[in-house]
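Morning run. Coffee first, then this:
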Amino acid sequence: MKISVKGPIISSNEQWIYDWFGIEATSPKKVSDQLSKLSGEDIDIDINSGGGSVFDASEIYALLKDYKGKKTGKILGLAASAASVIAMAADNLLMAPTAQMMIHNASTRSQGDYRDMDQTSSFLKNVNQTIANAYNLKSGKSYDELLIMMDKETWLTPQQALQHHLIDEIMFEGQGFEFVASADGGMIPQQVIDKIRNELHANPPLNQAEIPAQAAVNQKIIGNEQEEKETMNLEELKNKHPELYNQIRNEGYTEGVKAENSRIKSIEDLQMPGNEALINQAKFETNDSAESVAVQIIKAEKSRGQNYLQNLKEDADPINKVPGSPAPEEGGESDSVKASNLGANIAASINKMRGGIR
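And here it is:
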C-alpha cells in the first residue's frame, strides 16, 4: 500500500480547495483517511514536497510514526522543510539519487512592538527545537549540530543525507542517470484560498439534484395557454401578455445587472499585484467567472515562480563557465568567500518566494 505525500503540506480544511482545482497537496486528513483503510500491513510512503505548514506536517509525522506496520519512505524528488520532518517517520528511509533534502528554521510573519517581536522570536525557537526532535530521533545527531544545520538552511544530496544518517539508503545506487531538477512548493496563496471560500459560501454551485426541478420551472407554461400550446415564444408572449412581458423583461434586466456587478466585484476581490491585465480582461472582455479567474491567477503565479527560478539558473550559467584564476593578493577577497556570498544571495532570493511557516 502506498501513502502519497506530494505537493504542499496544508491543513485539512483547505484540502477540498486543492482537490477542486486538481492540484496535488497533502493534509493530515488525507493521510489519516488512507491509513484508516489499513490493518497494519507494510506501507510505502512516496515523498515529493517542498514543505508547507509545520504544524500539519507534525500531525502527519505523528500519524505515520504511530502506525504499527513497517514504513518504507521513498524521497522521489524533494523533501524540503516540513516535508523532511514527515520523512523522518519512516522506519527505513530511501532517497532517489536525483533527490534533495532541505532542512531549515521555521518562519512566520508578525507585527507589533518589540515585546511582540521578542515573543515571536521565542516561539520560533521552540518550533525549531520540536522540528529538530524528529531529525534527532532518526539520525542520532546532537541538537546543537542539527540546529546549526537548520540555521544555515542546509540542502543535502543523497550522499550527504546518508552521511548525516538522515536516510538509510540511496535508491538505484550504481546505476547511471541524467537529470533536470526544479523545486516548487506550489501552495495557493492564502488570500486566494480565503476569497474562494468566501465566494463559494456566498454563491454555492447549483446542486445537480436541483437541475431537473429548475428545468421544469423553466418549461412551465405561461398563463392559461396549456390547452392552446405547450410552449410560447417571446413574440407571442409580448403580443398576448404585454404587461407580463414587460414585468419579466424588467426583472430579468435588474437581475442581470446585479449578477454582472456581483461577477465584477468577485473578480476585483481576487486582485493581486502583477495580475492587473488578467483581471481587466476578465471583467470587460472574456466574461469569465471569479472561479475561472482564480485558477488563471494560480497558474500565472506558479509560472512566474518557475520563470524566476529559471532566470536564476540562466544568470548563474556564465559564472559556472568562468575558469579558475590565481589566488588573490593578500588582503583581497578569496574565491571561497565570493562563492559563499553568491550562495547566500541565491538562497535569500529563494527565501523571498516562500510565505507562512515552513
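Residues 290-320 form the longest helix (31 residues). Good start to the day.
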